[in-house]
Amino acid sequence: MNRILTYDSTLRDGEQCEGITLSLEDKLRIVERLDAFGVDFIEGGFPASNPKDIAFFQRVQDLPLKHARIAAFGSTCKKDVAAEDDRGLADLVASGAPVVTIVGKTWDEQVTRALLTTLDENLRMIRDSVAHLKAQGLMVVFDAEHFFDGYKANADYAMACVRAASEAGADSIDLCETNGGALPHEVEAIVAAVAQALPEQQLGIHCHNDSGCAVANSLAAVRAGAVQVQGTVNGFGERVGNTDLLTVIADLELKMGCTCVGEERLRDLTSVAQFVAETCNLSVPNHHPYTGASAFAHKGGLHASAIARFPEAYEHTRPEAVGNTQRMLVSELAGKASLIAKAKNLGIDLAQHADKTQEILDDIKRREAVGYSYEVADGSLALLLQWHLGAYRPHFTLESFRVIVDDHEDTGALAKDAMSEATIKIHVGDQRFVATGEGAGPVGALDNALRMAIVAFYPEVADIELVDYKVRILDENVGTDAITRVVITTRDKHGSWGTVGVSENIIEASWNALVDSIEYGLMRIGE
Amino acid sequence: MNRILTYDSTLRDGEQCEGITLSLEDKLRIVERLDAFGVDFIEGGFPASNPKDIAFFQRVQDLPLKHARIAAFGSTCKKDVAAEDDRGLADLVASGAPVVTIVGKTWDEQVTRALLTTLDENLRMIRDSVAHLKAQGLMVVFDAEHFFDGYKANADYAMACVRAASEAGADSIDLCETNGGALPHEVEAIVAAVAQALPEQQLGIHCHNDSGCAVANSLAAVRAGAVQVQGTVNGFGERVGNTDLLTVIADLELKMGCTCVGEERLRDLTSVAQFVAETCNLSVPNHHPYTGASAFAHKGGLHASAIARFPEAYEHTRPEAVGNTQRMLVSELAGKASLIAKAKNLGIDLAQHADKTQEILDDIKRREAVGYSYEVADGSLALLLQWHLGAYRPHFTLESFRVIVDDHEDTGALAKDAMSEATIKIHVGDQRFVATGEGAGPVGALDNALRMAIVAFYPEVADIELVDYKVRILDENVGTDAITRVVITTRDKHGSWGTVGVSENIIEASWNALVDSIEYGLMRIGE
């Protein structure tokens, strides 16, 4: 059996990472992308913890997922509370998720010193919680918290915990290396012992990277019999992070003869890494395994002739296998075939314009070199393609804008007295229009001014709504003078799209992304 | 034998990393630091490759090193050239380094297809080169290039290569996982086979991280009998990087019962990581094992009481063991215990102000509810605490600012013609000051204006540098009118800090974060 199930926890354990805050729309877009990539399970969050997670479990039910199953995360019932009376378990059931994952303790001392209950009561909590959820017809994953520390301290009790979950009907028991401190030989030995004791039970593995061994520990568990691997995209997570699910998938598929997402979808690995990172307002580190911009970078000249003679000596795997490239410049669109496929997604048939494809690729590379990123900016990419094909018909053109922001006194708190005003001069067809908009902020003022200027000509602009706005500084070594990339997410009643603007000036970058967002929206409506 | 030798290649293989360029002085300072840390061998570079490396090997001889030995790096003699006539070997000898490390091929196909010579000639090159260098009285390390790929392809030939080096007297044979593609179970099996075949020979290991397993592969080699580990500080290196020598040292010392630098010097681990990173003009990634700023970070509130009851459940090792510190992340869930711990990190003793603690917690909660986040904004949190304790002494106060951004034409590309101008009116003590700054963007213009206004009073502001600037829109349902959170990272020569600003207006939010960044920087300098 070399099919290994993948279980993504980016939206739950990954979001524990400092600095990551995902909006509801972000979470839904990540679900869609991971589903398309072929991930088997996507853990969405704690269904009871806050309004955003509650709304997530409602909204996600409307997504037309092709493959992935959504998991809601919680704990076993509380001590001295019956499973059927437990509020947390009831929230899990109410979430509507087809899979529920509950974490329970397996380390004897943690039960007695932290949970402050008896070892027997903890076994009851595990058994009753799993049985109760199974009785609701749900698929149940039992996350055995601190299993490896627990096993080292008291193997009999740790085994009794997973046996209780197993006998109560848990579909998968995922052994959690919660502290991240174990080493591969320990993980392999302990998982093998569990697999021997419970030969019929599906086992999974959940690791953290505190010893720098999360990937190796996960692979060691698979060698010992685990068939489900938990992790997060790019290893995002608190402290040192979780297992990077994407690296594990690549290692399993390319080096251990296992199947996770399959050879074809594995070629999306790099773009999935980039998409999720950008959505989290982060970057894939340049030197990240498989997906980093430098992962297959070679010093020019030094090796070039040697690479040509004996490529296996310089690459542990072909970069194309994971959608990366041997060059420095990495893009989902780096090759003609992928650009054609991407364009087709956007409803543009590039195959009919073979003469333009190289020109477009060159332009994309040039733009990505100065800071554009089209991974999350389908709208801007579609406009760029239309422009190259001579099919771009702008709905308006700018003559100039001026933005003024005034502020008085340093209140130190959430001040509301700063005022922004934007004046734009714009042409629609042969008419010139001047409009001034106000806003709490300068981009809002520009947005208001633009809408005011064009609404008489394009009343449908009222249906186009900006829903998210992100800013990244691309060269952190030059502070506020650096290149700024703005990504705007916009939606109408049919869906949402991303657009990108780049400039040394945050207002100009915002304006460029804003123009694309409205242009693409009007173009969609017009089609 | 649990003494494991450490061999650092930061100055040679690490410098292959894109973006790292070390001056001669940088290299010498890193040598001194690694020597003080207790590294056994420090590979300094290629003594023949450029004037800087030639000068390095001269200058390093004058350093009063306490423990480390300097290694010069090169290759076996060229094909069809006698070892005593080989220019590269002569350069190694002339370097004056007491240790020479020569790399030689061990993968049959690489010999025939890339080196374009016979298998026998390659064996001669290895044997003669090692013997020649030994005859000069040098310590010789043989780096067996591509050993693991070579062994998998033709074990007999790979073994013949290392046997040739061994018989010629190599002091250490370091098996190189050159491509970075191997997995721990493969490395362990192959090193064990070599150790069995050459029981008297000292073996070492040199890995790269392309499969995300460099640390685990190095540990696996030690388990199989290697007693010397090569790596680079922070894993710096080309592609995905080398083995992070510091992580391996910590794992070996804390988890495998080995001795590398010893318990006492292990407490310098984090500062060595930071020192080398800063010298390379890079940072230690926040989520790096052992040494990252977040490696021992915990969400406040949620776990604080549990950590107090059972700390082993939340830390795989004590952060003090590696010179790092536990960080409590202040969040919406913060409790008193974690706030007090966090304040202590910042050098503020809240325990002496018990009456203020609840007031501060309430204020933090109120601020986090409107969008502030102090997880990544230690600087703003410190100022807030000072304010509550009546100890905040602002270096300047704002009367008003005005920002104007002008743009003409919609160029559609990376336009450079938008201009920003900021005028600020500010009070320092009883003096009023008006200054105007320009910038590529509005925040840069504000930063310039502020610095211009205060530099005469606080010339030390010139040492404070903005290095990163992030923006998040917090309520995705209201687009550009939403609450904006700006987080700025600032550094001086002693470290870096984060500050946060929140407003409906991105410029005002930026201003607030900017003021905190400068205020906190001036406060640090003043202390």
TrEMBL record, chains A, B:
Keywords: Amino-acid biosynthesis, Branched-chain amino acid biosynthesis, Isoleucine biosynthesis, Transferase. InterPro entries: 2-isopropylmalate_synth_dimer, AIPM/Hcit_synth_CS, Aldolase_TIM, Citramal_synthase, LeuA/HCS_post-cat, LeuA_allosteric_dom_sf, PYR_CT. It is an enzyme of class 2 (transferase). The keyword Amino-acid biosynthesis applies. Residues 4-267 form the Pyruvate carboxyltransferase domain. Pathway: Amino-acid biosynthesis; L-isoleucine biosynthesis; 2-oxobutanoate from pyruvate: step 1/3. Pfam families: HCS_D2, HMGL-like, LeuA_dimer. Its EC number is 2.3.3.21. It catalyses: pyruvate + acetyl-CoA + H2O = (3R)-citramalate + CoA + H(+). The keyword Ubl conjugation does not apply. NCBIfam families: citramal_synth. Belongs to the alpha-IPM synthase/homocitrate synthase family. This is Citramalate synthase. It comes from Eggerthella hominis. The lineage of its organism: Bacteria, Bacillati, Actinomycetota, Coriobacteriia, Eggerthellales.
